[in-house]
Every structure is written in C-alpha cells, then in structure tokens.
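Slide 14.
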Amino acid sequence: MHRRLQRWGLLLALLSVAALSGCGATPSAAPTATFQNPVLRENFADPFILPVNGVYWLYATNASGKNISLARSTDLLTWEILSDAMPALPKWAKMTGGLVWAPEVIPIGDRYVMYYTARDKASNKQCVGVAVSALPEGKFKDTHDAPLVCQAQEGGTIDPSPFRDDDGQLYLYYKNDGNCCGIPTSIYAQKLAADGLSLLGEPVRLVRNDAQWEGRVVEAPTMFKHDGQYVLFFSANDYAGVEYAVGYAICEGPLGPCQDAPENPILASDLSDKNAMVIGPGHQALLQLGDQTWLVYHAWEVVAGSRRGDRRFVWLDRIQWEDGRPVVQGPTVGPQPAP
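Slide 15: predicted structure.
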C-alpha cells in the first residue's frame, strides 16, 4: 500500500511539472494572411472603395448592363457582386449604353452622395452628375435637370472625385475630356457646397498633360492628405495601352498650386518584361486602413503575351511613404501580406 501511494505521488508530481511547463511555453506565431492580385477578376473599371461600418463598397464604371457596377466585401479580398447602384439615369443624360463612368461616393450628413460621368443630351459631351441615396448600396438618384459641371468647350468633363479637408470643407476634382477631340487635358479643383450638390467659386487648374509619360491625357484625380501634406494622385496616357500609369503631385493646399513629382510615374507596366502578367495600371483610389495606405486600381491581365479580353480587373497594392512621398511596389502578382 505504501509503495502504491508513492507511485501515485510521483505521477502527480510529474503531471504538475508538465502542466507548469505548458503554461510557460511560447505559442507558435500564426501565419500571416496573404493574397494575390487581382482581388476581383470581373470587369470593374475605374474602381472606388468606400468603407462603411466594416463593409467595403466597391463602385465602378458601367458593365454587364448596369449603369454603376457594385460589389461588397468585409476583407477587401472576397467580393459579392450586387445589382446596379443607379439603375435610372437623370433626364439630362442620354440612355446610350457604355457611357456611365468612374463613380465615387462620399457620406454627407445622413446620406451618400455619388459623383459620376454620363453623356449630356444638350452638348453631346461626357459631363459630371451628382446623385444621392440613403444607403451606400443605393439606389442612387439624380433628380437634377442638368449636369453638375460640363466643360463642353473643352471636350466635356469626366472623372469626378470628392475630397473632405480636415476643416470639413468639401472639394471636387475633375478633368476636361479634351482627349476626345484633340484638346489638351487638365485636372481642376473646385469647392463644393456643404450638401455636396453644387459647386462654389471658380475652378482652379492643378495639373496639365505637359510631361512625356502623360501622353495626351491626365485624368482620374484623387486628392489625399498624408501627415498634413496634400498629395494629388492621377493617371495618364492611353487607358487601353501599356503606357497607362499613375503619378502624383505635391500641392500646397486643396486648390494648389501643385508640382508634379520628378519620379513619375510611380505605378506603371514593366515594359522590360516580355512575360509581364499585367499592363496599364491606373484610375486609382486610396484607402487608409489604420497606419497602412492602400492603392486600389484597375489593370489589364496579360495571358501568353496578350491582353485577356476587354475587361479591367481590380488590383490592390500597398503604398509606402518615404520622406512624405508615396512609393508603390507594383503592380504585384505574387503573394503579399493581406490588409
């Protein structure tokens, strides 16, 4: 009996030591989640992402019979395609398919305001409209009799992009569609009224297509404020070609003046790689997630040396800031840490 108790005591002691050792063990680190581009292999050109309460809403140019393409995600990597965010066009817009472009959305008060491009009946030019909805998914409605802005004498107006400064003042950035008709292109900025439905003052020219890499086009403006500095991102050159790319300018304020970065472009096709899997990255939008800045944009996927059809897929790449200047390691095709 005495020996049996000794054996039980020894067993309990060993179990106690093992338990204590387990408490002090360091668990192995969980593997870092990764992803690969494109994050959405659907035709979602001119993408814009709006985060709302843990949900990401992705808006894009017309496709698949929709005026405004729409998708949603909770992780930026897996997307659910939804119905048309704006199924009805306003009375000023032609119902011609394929001409509703580049929507961007901003919350103002208790509603969501969308800026977009459509074909104006009166001028037969692409012009910018504004629509509202109680929900980020729509349905957005434009009840106005005329476009918000239409520079008909400069070829029209496209690619509207709203920006809210730290003091609450709203601005709208857009470009004249001069490349439609042999006219130089510029990016403009203008103040918006508090409700976002009308423009204030006169437009200010910030950037024009005067650099070789830009070709005949500057477009797709995105104003972003980083550490108190105004950075105007934009795309340039032929959207359908390998030279389409993203650059930026440093601005003294939301209305400029702005100075193009000498290192432009910062996101472009690798023209030296004959086996490149992606070309023509551009029409960017930015997303701030904690201390990380992400660039969402479209690009053409390349298969066996040729562009895969007529669809622009959605890419996502991290922006690193070096001495206040954005650096993009992309467009990426291999695994990278997830947002």
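Speaker note: Residues 1-25 have pLDDT under 50 and may be disordered.
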